[in-house]
Amino acid sequence: MTEKFKILAKYIKDMSSETPDVETYISAGNNIAKYQLDIDIKSIALKNKMIEVNITLKFQHKDTQLKRSHFEIIYAVAVKIDESIEKKDLEKIVLCDVPNSVVSDIEKSFTDMMHNSGFPNIKLEKKIDFTKLYLERLN
Predict the structure, then answer these.
(1) Diameter of the chain by CA atoms?
(2) pTM score, whole prediction
(3) Residues 43-61: pLDDT tens digits?
(4) DSSP secondary structure letters along 37-81
(5) How far is 18 from 9, CA to CA, in rounded Å?
(6) Measured between alpha carbons, how far is 137 from 2 in angstroms, rounded to an integer?
(7) What span, in angstroms and rounded, lies between the C-alpha atoms of 100 and 130?
(8) Which fold has domain 5-138?
(9) Taking a C-beta distance cutoff of 8 angstroms, is the pair 27, 45 a contact?
(10) Contact at 8 Å (CB) between 56 and 71?
(11) Side-chain half-sphere of 71: how many Cα atoms within 13 Å?
C-alpha cells in the first residue's frame, strides 16, 4: 500500500428523497434556494485495520412550518488502513482523506438523486471541500 489507506468498497448505503404530495413538491420548488446542505461523517471500526466511513449529505429546509421535501444520501466507503498509521493521523484520514477521494462520486449521486426527484436544475454551487471542513473543525 503506497497510500495511507486503500479503498476496498464504495457504495450508496442509503438514499432517501421524500416529497409526500404535490403541494409539498411545489412548495419545495419555490423555496429550494433556501434549502441547506449539511454534511456529517461517521466511522465504524472493522476487523483487520479496516474502517467503514459513512458520509451523510442532507439537503433540507429548516423551517418546520413550511411544506418541505427531505433529501439524504449516506455514502459508505470501506477502507483498509496502512499498518504504519498512528492513531493521531486516523482522524484526518477518516474526516478528510477518504471523503476527498470519493467526493466526485458523492456529488454525482446527489445531483442524480435531485434530478430524479423532479429538481433537475439543482447543482452543487461549489465542490465539497472536505479538507476545508476538516480544518474548520480543528479551529
Answers:
(1) 55
(2) 0.90
(3) 999 998 999 999 999 999 8
(4) EEEEEEEEE-STTEEEEEEEEEEE---TTS---EEEEEEEEEEEE
(5) 27
(6) 27
(7) 6
(8) Bacterial Protein-export protein SecB (3.10.420)
(9) no
(10) no
(11) 23
Distance CA 11, CA 50 (A): 16
From 74, 14, 85, select the one nearest 41 (Cα to Cα).
74
Quote the CA–CA distance of 64 and 20 in Å, as a whole number: 15
Give the integer Cα–Cα distance in Å for 111 and 133. 20
Given pLDDT bands bounded at 50, 70 and 90, which one contains residue 1? very low
pLDDT, residue 25, reads 95
Closest CA to 39 of 75, 1, 90, 92: 75
For the record, the C-alpha cell of 133 comes out as 471542513
H or E element at residue 85? none
Residues facing residue 5 across a β-bridge: 81
Q: Determine contact, residues 11/54, Cβ cutoff 8 Å.
A: no
Here the cell at position 16 is 432517501
